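Reviewer 2 asked us to include a model.

Predict the structure of this chain.
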Amino acid sequence: MIKDNILLAVLLSFILLLSIPVYGDSTNDNNAQTNSSGSNTQITGGYTSTTTNNSTTNGSDVPVNSANAPSFSAMSQDVCSTGVSGSVSTLGLGISAGKHVRDLNCERIKLSKVLFDFNMKIAAVSLLCQDERVYMAMKSAGTPCPWDGKIGAEAQAMWDKYPELRPDYKDFLVKAEIIQRIDAELAEIARQEEAERVRVEQEALAKKIAEEKAKLETLKKQEEVDNIIIETDLEPKEKRIINVHSE
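Predicted model (structure tokens):
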């Protein structure tokens, strides 16, 4: 259908380029018209009467009739076609053409209604699913289009296995790329947040370990001080014991 329209446009352009302009103006050719009346002399009563009439008519520009595009109409009939027409006119050539174009979406809807009337509901839905808009709507609603007799999750599994057969494959690739990019960005954000959480926990753990070490050092020093005091107290007691035995 698109190729036919392109071919028609190319043909009209080619004819337009080959057309030779024709002008209605002819001022310096053999079309100049001159009308002269000769002299008439009448001798009556002793006088002379002379009449001279000279007239010249030159051609003028004559425009070419406009090229009218033909009228195409469905005539209010229940048909799935649209009329397309156009026209081109120049000084030397005028062309008009027209054709009917099939409305495939209209045909799809009518065929689907006929199948539904015959109680072929799955076939009717499958026919509508050939339209990418219907396919996307069905998938978004959680009711994927049928696949060779399979419906529901089984049909969706087959569409996922062979994505090239999806009616919306081009849009699917664009959406998949966007989803992949956003998921990668979210994963990077999550990784950074996790790394920050681990760093904070490690710092808190290191601080706690340092505090525990400081407590241990304090306790160790306290024990050393206590040992020194005990040894100092024992020495006088030993001396007193020795003195008692010596007496």
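The chain has six helices and six strands. The chain has three domains: 1-16+67-102, 105-167, 168-234. We have added this to the supplementary material.
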